[in-house]
Structure of Peptidase M50:
Amino acid sequence: MSGATPRGRRIAGLYFSGVELRDLLVAWLALGVAFTFFFVGGTAGFDRLLAAGVVLPLLVGLLTAGVAFLLHEIAHKVVAVHYDQVAEFRADTSMLFLAVMSSLLGFIFAAPGAVHHRGRLTKREHGHIALAGPVVNLLLTLVFLPALLVGPVVGSQVITLIGSRGIAINVFLAAFNLIPYGPLDGKTVIGWSKPVWAAIFVPSVLLAVGLVIVGGLGFGGPF
């Protein structure tokens, strides 16, 4: 007998099946755990994780990496449904397991799953669906920016950490997914429009290099 799954629900006018809701929840939790381990340096940082009480670092992981990946996938679904597609997210449990295991070693490889859709689409519509995820990630950097600015003012290291990691993860996720290779969004976008791809990819890479790699944004903090 198969395990029970949650009932389907309509959220903000968008229908999510029970299986889809379960998969989104599993992916969100797994990525939150994976990035919690990753940000303390894997097993080498367990003492810092335990000293912080585990719950707070996990909450930061869920609110930053978890939300970034979750809304990235939901954005694909929203645009696909807009084009009259039957679209649902499916988690890739083996890749989620790999994400958690790699994070224990101090690095991370995260590919939580994908939105699968069916129906006739033009190349332009395929491009719009693919582009939606990275664009949402770039917009999310603006959502996390107030936390980065307000945190130091109110003297909250945790709020500052949520802001910096939220921005760093979303910028990196946008840039990485726009690489025109394999199953990544960039291959579909560039196949539709090279100018649009370049207009989004180049700023994403510059932000990722400037803020994350050079500036070290997102990697500081107590845990």
About this structure: The chain has one domain: 9-117+125-214. The chain has a mean pLDDT of 92. The chain is about 65% helix and 10% strand.
